[in-house]
User: What shape does this take?
Amino acid sequence: MATGIDTSALYYYFAGAQTGQGKEAAIASEASAKIDAAYDKETEILIPAVVVTELANLIDYRFGREKCTQTLDKLLDEKKNRILPTSPLDVEPALIISKRTGVKYTDCLIYLTLKRDGTTRLITSDKEFRQFKDLEIV
Assistant: This one.
């Protein structure tokens, strides 16, 4: 079974201890444990292209260009990862869903990209995804 991963979970996975202390460190630890478990048991990890873009922007902004390129190299080198393209057919429906639910536009794109691929499981640290009842949050 394949599992999708969103930006928040991947950010905490790659930033790890650099995210800080307290609540943020606990979130990073939980996200890392879930992703490690998925890599151990899943045949495929699905990453929507918009997640790669968001992750690159976050890492570059918070930690610099070198950390960003190292992170993307690791992400792309992992054999179980499959990057899912954003369909132009999802651009407008994502906006409609975002307006209707209040969920961030890029999260709606992530949701629709996974749905289009037939994926119903998602590792996330973002509570907004719970609004999508047909998505199992891991």
